[in-house]
Amino acid sequence: MSFADNPYQASQPADPQWGQPPSDHAKERLKIPAILLLVLAPIHMLFMLADLIFRIVNAQTGNVMILGDDAAPGAKEGALIGIYAGGAVDVLAILAQIVVALGAWQMLQVKSRQMALLACILSCIPCLSGCCVLGIPLGVWGLIVLNDPQVKQGFPQ
Predict the structure, then answer these.
(1) Where do the DSSP E strands lie in the chain?
(2) What's the CA gap between 96 and 115, in Å, rounded?
(3) Which of 2, 5, 81, 125 has the highest Cβ tally under 10 A?
(4) What's the per-residue H, E or C state across 53-89?
């Protein structure tokens, strides 16, 4: 009795992916989250860049619009500190989105699983992700797909 004649052998699942190399299967599963992260990252970078420019202009002119001339002592200095802190978060978010875009590209190409994981994790951080409403679910989706054992096999070791 040969292996092919074994009645207890599991049959092949009715999966269109059956027989594809692991990298093709991984590429197919990662395609949508990777493309959506690639689209979202530059949009978020543009928003953060616009906010950063707005903050720089306000800091340079000393224009703190919400405070009048009769503001409490230290209020304008506090507002300027807020402008600088927000600018630092903007710069950090822009850098994070560059990493997300690079990681999403690596995910799309099935090249570096570590970089793809980093991109998905950064997308899950609210202040750093592109439009939290979209960035967090896309990051979670990417993490779930990247941790699928069949997708893991598609990445180079």
Answers:
(1) none
(2) 12
(3) 125
(4) HHHHHHHHHCCCCCCCCCCCCCHHHHHHHHHHHHHHH
- Residue written as tokens 């009795």? 1
Separation between Cα atoms, residue 148 and residue 28, nearest integer Å:
13
pLDDT tens track for 98-140: 999 999 999 999 999 999 999 999 999 988 876 678 889 999 9
Q: Which residue has the higher pLDDT, 98 or 4?
A: 98
Distance (Å) of CA 137 to CA 12, 91, 129, 134: 33, 23, 10, 6
CB atoms within 10 A of CB 157: 5
Q: How many H helices and E strands in the chain?
A: 5, 0
CB atoms within 10 A of CB 137: 15
Closest to 37 in 3D by CA, of 112, 110, 120, 96: 120
Distance CA 49, CA 54 (A): 9
